[in-house]
């Protein structure tokens, strides 16, 4: 802890957290335009994107039942506002360059599916030919960039889920791609194929470690557009792909799961149209040494983990993998997961419009909580900050009886890993 001010800050977070551990979307408009409200127009650009500061803070108002999670908590910056397609994956380089994915599986938009934030605009990246819609074969262009990450060599990896809204998954569309950020060069492209890929696959997010295999190993969560979730393990050097834990409880959506989203209690019933975002294995993150993989189904409050030494070994049986799965306990209703250098896991919470931190001892801190944090999705840790995209996925027409309830702008936010100590003008130097 960094002094009394920080101790009080953490205490407030923990009090708020007690009420939170029990919750995005896309606009089919030309992609790329970022705009800040006039009230924030005077703010200086941050890392190439329009920025504003949103303070959630002070002492929360106490609710009628003593609920101290009644108002906003923590503070965060709005790094960018998106008035076009909704954002999902995000990566931030050590130099401060920001890359964002805009998937097309919910709305087949005409904007960039992968872009860099440059001087307040989304620039198609690495090239317009790859990122914008075209007549090129699905294997030769980016179709629908979803989850994103960075390996220990500083290369950008993304999962192209390959899905265009209203269309079947095309051969060659679902793939892993790796780019060198300094040049935009495509370093790796691995097309996903059967039996690792199913017709209803929703390749959602990924993490890559370079400690197993000749060129490393990629781990992908298939949350499934149907009822067939799993983990997919990809050897980068050979392109070998394996679908694992396809029937294990740790990858499955929980039947009867109830979530309270924007104040409305909603229940997931298999076989019925979902009224909120549901799915199997979704959030995924690695330990700092890449020796353990953490993952979680979207429709669940549990967190699970596995040793990567077992997961990366194709000779390990399915039974041995299942026996090695560790139930890490509850973590709230999460989409994206991320790990900092200290091994603490940041977990989004779409029920309570918040982002939590799971400490290495299993305790939790509330980092930020605000009504604007709707459907927190892709999340990424730098050395100093946590970045998260807010896409309003729960407001899609498909979850609301055909009525599109999304209200742009969608946001990219960030907050410091360590809270800034309060400033006391009366304190003696």
Automatic annotation (TrEMBL):
PROSITE patterns: TAT. Pfam families: MRJP. One of its GO terms (cellular component) is extracellular region. It is found in: Secreted. This is Gluconolactonase. Coiled coil: none annotated. It comes from the Bacteria. Gene3D superfamilies: TolB, C-terminal domain. InterPro entries: 6-blade_b-propeller_TolB-like, MRJP/yellow-related, TAT_signal. Keywords: Secreted.
């Amino acid at each position: 802890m960094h002094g009394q001010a920080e101790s009080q800050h953490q205490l407030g977070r923990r009090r708020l957290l007690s009420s939170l551990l029990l919750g995005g979307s896309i606009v089919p408009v030309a992609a790329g335009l970022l705009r800040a409200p006039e009230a924030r127009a005077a703010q200086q650009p941050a890392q190439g994107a329009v920025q504003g500061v949103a303070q959630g803070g002070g002492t929360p108002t106490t609710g009628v039942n003593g609920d101290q999670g009644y108002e906003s908590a923590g503070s965060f910056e709005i790094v960018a506002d998106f008035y076009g397609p909704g954002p999902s994956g995000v990566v931030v380089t050590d130099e401060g360059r920001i890359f964002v994915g805009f998937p097309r599986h919910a709305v087949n938009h005409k904007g960039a599916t992968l872009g860099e934030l440059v001087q307040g605009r989304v620039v198609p990246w690495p090239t317009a030919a790859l990122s914008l819609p075209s007549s090129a074969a699905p294997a030769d262009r980016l179709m629908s960039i979803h989850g994103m990450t960075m390996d220990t060599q500083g290369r950008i990896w993304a999962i192209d889920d390959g899905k265009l809204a209203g269309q079947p998954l095309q051969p060659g569309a679902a793939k892993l791609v790796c780019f060198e950020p300094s040049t935009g060069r495509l370093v790796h492209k691995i097309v996903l194929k059967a039996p690792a890929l199913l017709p209803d696959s929703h390749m959602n997010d990924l993490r890559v470690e370079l400690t197993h295999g000749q060129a490393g190993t990629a781990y992908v969560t298939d949350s499934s557009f149907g009822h067939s979730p799993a983990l997919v393990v990809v050897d980068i050097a050979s392109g070998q792909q394996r679908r694992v834990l396809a029937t294990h409880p740790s990858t499955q959506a929980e039947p009867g799961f109830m979530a309270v989203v924007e104040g409305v209690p909603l229940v997931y019933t298999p076989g019925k149209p979902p009224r909120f975002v549901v799915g199997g294995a979704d959030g995924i993150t690695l330990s700092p040494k890449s020796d353990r993989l953490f993952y979680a189904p979207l429709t669940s409050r549990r967190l699970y983990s596995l040793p990567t030494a077992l997961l990366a070994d194709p000779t390990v049986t399915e039974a041995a993998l299942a026996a090695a799965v560790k139930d890490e306990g509850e973590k709230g209703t999460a989409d994206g997961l991320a790990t900092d250098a200290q091994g603490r896991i940041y977990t989004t919470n779409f029920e309570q419009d918040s982002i939590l931190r799971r400490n290495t001892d299993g305790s939790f801190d509330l980092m930020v909580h605000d009504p604007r944090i709707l459907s927190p999705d892709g999340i990424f840790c730098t050395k100093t900050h946590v970045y998260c995209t807010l896409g309003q996925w729960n407001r899609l027409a498909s979850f609301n009886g055909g009525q599109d309830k999304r209200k742009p702008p969608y946001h990219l936010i960030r907050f410091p890993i360590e809270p800034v100590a309060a400033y006391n003008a009366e304190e003696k130097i």
